[in-house]
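TASK: fixed-backbone design
INPUT:
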């Protein structure tokens, strides 16, 4: 049975392995170069106090590579389209399932072997790519402190493994229930995008209760806790919510709410005066040291969803007449 599965999916495996190898070569070469250039630049800029300009130049020079790294977040959806959706749907659509499930191998055995190998392949690919990107993005994380930001959070750590398994499971479930490749592919793509969007925008910020802190309107006290830490920057959810000295929120900055002592002032002088009057900015953020906690929670969510989808696909295949 394993030999048959290999024969059926070897082209997909070769293509995925080739793409991974090409990315590995690109990331290893450029990652080593970027780290070397950055270290040399830091060693020379410290004496002239121009390291901030070095950071900006590094970002501009390698922006296309970092954009390419972010685009790897689309790969799990492609796994669902090309590995998951056709797995059952193509067999049913072409009528070959009747021969396979009644003569060559019982459907339970066929399904178990196919599910196991395809999901394992997706997990291995996701783990390898994530390991490469986590290492490669080390310099960017140091410069931009953005590891906790959504687009970068999703291509590092352990969540890419869970995304890959979820994408394939979604494709398999869609194919098992719709029994046609194109509709299954459309549902896989749309469903994957929808779930990822909902999790990112509405669920992830609330994995753990966010920290709320009032900071001065001007001055060094505005610095976000966690900036510069080795674990990366904090994830700021909201910033710039004004409150007055009594703690009441200020929605619109108008002359009627500005203290008498600050009226007639503009721009920086106004905010300096408001700060002296006890006004504050209320910020909400997730501390930088929660990065791995959030990784574990999100990976768990997607693995549970993948398990549910795999169970639904199995039930559909086993309960339906050939």
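OUTPUT:
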């Amino acid at each position: 049975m394993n030999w048959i599965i290999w024969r059926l999916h070897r082209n997909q495996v070769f293509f995925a392995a080739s793409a991974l190898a090409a990315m590995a070569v690109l990331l290893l070469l450029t990652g080593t170069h970027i780290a070397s250039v950055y270290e040399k630049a830091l060693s020379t800029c410290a004496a002239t106090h121009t390291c901030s300009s070095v950071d900006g130049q590094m970002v501009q020079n390698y922006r296309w590579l970092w954009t390419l790294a972010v685009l790897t977040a689309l790969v799990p959806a492609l796994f669902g389209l090309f590995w998951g959706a056709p797995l059952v749907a193509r067999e049913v659509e072409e009528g070959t399932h009747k021969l396979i499930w009644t003569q060559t191998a019982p459907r339970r055995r066929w399904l178990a072997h196919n599910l196991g190998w395809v999901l394992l392949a997706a997990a291995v690919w996701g783990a390898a790519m994530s390991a490469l990107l986590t290492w490669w993005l080390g310099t960017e994380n140091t410069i931009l402190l953005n590891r906790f930001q959504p687009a970068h959070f999703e291509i590092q750590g352990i969540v890419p493994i869970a995304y890959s398994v979820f994408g394939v499971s979604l494709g398999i479930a869609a194919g098992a229930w719709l029994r046609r490749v194109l509709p299954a592919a459309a549902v896989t793509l749309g469903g994957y995008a929808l779930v990822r969007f909902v999790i990112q925008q509405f669920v992830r910020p609330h994995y753990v209760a966010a920290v709320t802190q009032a900071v001065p309107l001007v001055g060094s006290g505005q610095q976000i806790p966690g900036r510069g830490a080795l674990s990366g920057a904090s994830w700021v959810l909201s910033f710039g919510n004004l409150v007055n000295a009594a703690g009441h929120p200020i929605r619109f900055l108008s002359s009627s709410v500005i203290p008498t002592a600050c009226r007639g002032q503009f721009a920086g002088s106004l905010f300096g005066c408001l700060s002296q009057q006890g006004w504050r900015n209320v910020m909400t953020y997730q501390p930088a040291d929660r990065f791995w906690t959030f990784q574990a929670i999100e990976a768990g969510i997607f693995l549970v969803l993948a398990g549910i989808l795999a169970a639904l696909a199995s039930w559909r295949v086993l309960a339906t007449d050939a």
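COMMENT: The chain has two domains: 28-42+51-209+289-319, 211-288.
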